[in-house]
Q: What sequence folds into this?
């Protein structure tokens, strides 16, 4: 078995100039890192409104899934997937773990093409209801009695149709 | 010992160009703002693997040297439902004919926290993985790691990418290797 090993000069360090050539371990300015964390905090401060907007979009898409014709189903599923994925990202980034959990679960169920339309409608609705409760009541953590109850509710819908 | 000990300087990324591949507009905006805060000189953003492939191809075609690329580091999401995933982009980069593309440092950023993702990304040649939610420290440490520890690349029949061995583990048992260390070709 032939294995080749490629070693090269540290081009990234070279790009920073000679001042860093001999510095073995580097770092970014703590003020720059603090600035980045401040940006995350600022974005997360507006995340409840953003999440509410996405939940409204999910509501509309669910209605489209329920009432639309079969030809549109694939398109709607793609939009549902993308919106759930977006909520998951925002939830994970801003510490809404429970919301991120349901959004991820919804996203993964939309991908399951073996589900029939009726199953998809019920499973999407169960996720959407749970996410609305989580958002309205401001639940953050994935654990706890309320979280377990909501998870159970969604699981029942999944078990019934899956 | 010297009388005047120079205090180490923080890295200056003003000459760096970083490509963000992220389908979520929120995350894309956040990451680009964070990189700006880090002082990164130029930031490109694409919302899918296909867009990134197109951009890197155009960059390759318009520059003079085949060994240099306009992008220094690629920061990519893993799961992008539309227009090609991070997995496809990473395969494309590592499989590229030009050295300037196939040796690009790649940091995978993902909300998937599974062992599967870490193992798959590593086995396809990612340099670093960063699990969301991202923090200033998390992103900074991955960028610094890519700069400080450019691992040699390994080309084996079933793998091409940075050396996956991060530590030297002492071996026990009989010696079965037929190739000695000094026989390994270095380019």
A:
């Amino acid at each position: 078995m032939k294995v080749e090993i490629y070693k090269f000069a540290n081009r990234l360090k070279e790009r920073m100039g000679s001042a860093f050539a001999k510095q073995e371990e580097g770092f970014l300015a703590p003020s720059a890192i603090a600035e980045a964390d401040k940006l995350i905090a600022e974005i997360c401060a507006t995340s409840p409104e953003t999440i509410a907007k996405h939940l409204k979009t999910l509501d509309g898409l669910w209605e489209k899934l329920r009432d639309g014709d079969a030809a549109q189903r694939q398109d709607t599923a793609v939009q549902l997937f993308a919106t759930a994925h977006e909520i998951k990202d925002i939830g994970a980034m801003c510490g809404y773990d429970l919301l991120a959990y349901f959004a991820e679960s919804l996203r993964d169920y939309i991908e399951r093409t073996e589900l029939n339309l009726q199953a998809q409608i019920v499973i999407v609705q169960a996720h959407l209801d749970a996410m609305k409760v989580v958002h309205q009541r401001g639940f953050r953590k994935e654990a706890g009695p309320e979280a377990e109850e909501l998870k159970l509710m969604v699981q029942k819908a999944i078990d019934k149709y899956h | 010992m010297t009388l005047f000990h120079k205090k180490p300087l923080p890295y200056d990324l003003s000459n760096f160009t970083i490509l963000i591949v992220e389908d979520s507009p929120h995350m894309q905006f956040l990451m680009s703002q964070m990189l700006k805060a880090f002082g990164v000189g130029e930031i490109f953003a694409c919302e899918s693997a296909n867009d990134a492939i197109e951009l890197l191809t155009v960059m390759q075609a318009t520059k003079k040297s085949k060994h240099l690329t306009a992008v220094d580091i690629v920061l990519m999401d893993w799961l992008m439902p539309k227009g090609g995933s991070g997995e496809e982009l990473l395969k494309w980069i590592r499989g590229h004919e030009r050295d300037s593309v196939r040796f690009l440092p790649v940091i995978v950023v993902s909300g998937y926290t599974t062992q599967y993702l870490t193992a798959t990304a590593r086995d396809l040649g990612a340099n670093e993985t960063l699990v969301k939610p991202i923090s200033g420290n998390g992103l900074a440490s991955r960028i610094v790691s890519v700069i400080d520890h450019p691992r040699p690349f390994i080309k084996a029949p079933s793998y091409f990418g940075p050396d996956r061995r991060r530590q030297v583990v002492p071996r026990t048992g009989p010696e079965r290797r037929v190739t000695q260390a000094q026989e390994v070709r270095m380019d």
Summary: Residues 49-62 of chain B form the longest helix (14 residues). Chain B has a mean pLDDT of 85. The radius of gyration of chain B is 18 Å. Strands of chain B lie at 17-21, 42-46, 73-77, 106-110, 128-131, 153-156, 159-162, 185-186.
